[in-house]
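Appendix B: a complete holo record

For completeness, this appendix reproduces one full record from the ligand-bound portion of the collection. The bound molecule is zinc ion. The inputs are the chain sequence and the ligand SMILES; the output is the full three-dimensional arrangement of the complex, encoded as structure tokens. No fields have been trimmed.
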Amino acid sequence: MIKLGFHVSIAGSLPLAVSRAEENGCDTFQIFTRSPRVWAAKPIEPAVAKAFKDALTVSGIGPVVDHMPYLPNPAAEKPEIYARSIFTMTEELDRCDQLKIPYLVTHLGHHGKEDGHKKGQEKVIAAIGQALDESEGETMILLENTANEKNTVGGTFTDVGVIADALSNEKRIGFCFDTCHAAAAGYDLKGHGAETVFGWFNDEAGRLDRLKVIHLNDMKGGVGSHLDRHEHLGLGYLGEETIRDVLTFPKISHCAFIMETPSDEIRTDKDNMAVARRLAVSS
Ligand SMILES: [Zn+2]
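The structure of the chain with zinc ion bound, as generated:
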């Protein structure tokens, strides 16, 4: 059986994320360990970290995935934003170590006009390398593909691969594949199928055994739209058949499948989970 889950809220306190995940029938889940919309993070009290780890052990859920907050940009042109981004990534790795979270997902940022793409890429490599060097523990950084919006770094599989290859600490670098982002970037999962598109990922980004997390999202935009807007499973461009194709592709069955589907009146998380469970059983 593959592992399915959601991005869940930590509102109230970190341990509450575990009960929310349980309520929605998750085998795995993703969180922000702090507010994703501000730079500053309150330290995690040791008692809170212990309560989180205890709740997790009791629940039997795992792995937990942490997602980097929104403000950091590891390709930033402005030196102060770049420095803060490295600080935040290091801090987030330390928080993962404190909570015993094995994976930290990060986007690869946006380069500035003056810097251009190549310099942006070099900055990302240096930023991640420094954060790994300066952090405690063994948490792996997962490089996530993006919708390849303007000035993006990490918008193509090749781009993700160049960054992964340049980072020597291979046991702490893996990948997160977002289905919405891939198709929005132009990799037509619906047209070509999972075997072909993940084959490209394997050849251009890195081996599929280093792929640890799938962000399982349908999409509001179409192929090559560069639109990072997620949709409920089966209700977007990808549709149920493509979601099924991804869920049943054997070479990625070791991954944690995390849904980042919208919160609205159309569908609850429980309903998306029911759809995912139904599609995960190959027909
Ligand atoms: Zn992401």
